[in-house]
Amino acid sequence: MLKDSFNRVHDYLRISITDKCNFSCTYCMPIKNCHFLPNNKLMTVNEIYTIAKIFVGLGIKKIRLTGGEPLIHPDFIQILEKLHSLKLELALTTNAYYLDKYIHPFKQLRLGSINVSLDTLEAAKFLKITGKNAFEKIYNNIVLLLQHNFHPKINVVLIKDINDNEIMNFINWTKDLPIHVRFIEYMPFEANRWNLNYVVPLNEILNKINEEGYTIVKLNDTLNSTSKSFQIKKFKGTFAIISTVSNPFCDNCNRIRLTADGKLRNCLFAQSETDILTPLRENKNIVPLIEKSIGSKFKLRGGLPDFKDQQIFKKLSKRKMIEIGG
Ligand code: SAM
Ligand code: SF4
Question: Given ligand 1 and candidates 94, 259, 321, which is best to mutate, with the most ligand atoms within 8 Å of its CB?
Answer without folding.
Answer: 321
